């Protein structure tokens, strides 16, 4: 009878317990590791775990999952840079840059970034761990990060899911992390990818103004618009250089353009965009017929699609249509985040692809690798699902002034440098829009000696291509070294 009662009790409680899958919001495990970077063997400690988020009354309302890499042969942390890394979404885990870009382990992919089997990971010989310690942070509902048990999750959404709410609680979290790890003296850097660039741009000013924490650098990987206005004719025109890069890659251009190197060809398209296309779009329906015909012909020449399709869109060609149209006659679509990737739709007709071919491919390789790595090598054990993408919507995007926040942080802090990194084949946060953001970030031009630009022959995650993994990490090394203040150098104009 007792066994029967116990069995019935287990049936009653087990589903609820499994559904909750509780996780300790303040816990960590550390393992000792090694990696060979640029031919040199490096020892380091890898700490992965949870650190709490508290409300204004000191109550734990969430636990954020992080992975922290710290070289173990460094005696003086005061001069050792700390890089704080965020991915985007919003709602995306830190997995992408963690195991494909800057971290000490690299997922198994081919040299162009396509998935291979068996799934897994290996050492990353290009990791920046040789020059900086790194922490990868997962905002609420990404990775293993979750709101705490027993809180009103609906009421708490406004504390986590929005441009400014996100920045506010993450700045508090960073303050706690830096204090716990004894890194206040260290030169500090923020790196963000995609929506993560919105996040770190806002954090730069929030950390200065609310936590008195001053940075040496911010790295914007495949940056968003950062709240910088570009609607109407400007928004429509800025897409063309990306269209041209993609058409060049897929060999859809006239022979005289196709035989040029990409980086020799694109300045011609950029000049046409700013000097001719923007003014033409400003004229709208009142542009002269002859001039419109001339503009349409040039756009078709650069974008690799027909004059008729451009004419039908009144010169304002949507990216969705371009992804469907460019290779339509070959039966393929091109990827949104990386237009080197091809997809196959149910039918060739239509004005947008059925799916994002590149993201589908990436999830093949990333999801098994991060689960294996965290559990097997870093020894973080949990039954909680690792959210590659977590539920964070609706996301409050109102009052996004993150670009202006970054400008203001730079103006207030003479030490602060900013680097943009962009892929030519990224159609989600395209390279010319990123360049436009850099141009518009500081209208005065007084900060441009601390703004730098790097571009790569790949997509949104430029580091997936082996050649660009090497180049982009080397660019990070140089940026970090160049932005370190010399001993005794005052922060002054």
Automatic annotation (TrEMBL):
The keyword Glycoprotein applies. Gene3D superfamilies: alpha/beta hydrolase. One of its GO terms (molecular function) is serine-type carboxypeptidase activity. Pfam families: Peptidase_S10 (PF00450). The keyword Amino-acid biosynthesis does not apply. It comes from the Bacteria. InterPro entries: AB_hydrolase_fold, Peptidase_S10. Keywords: Carboxypeptidase, Glycoprotein, Hydrolase, Protease, Signal. GO terms for biological process: proteolysis. This is Carboxypeptidase.
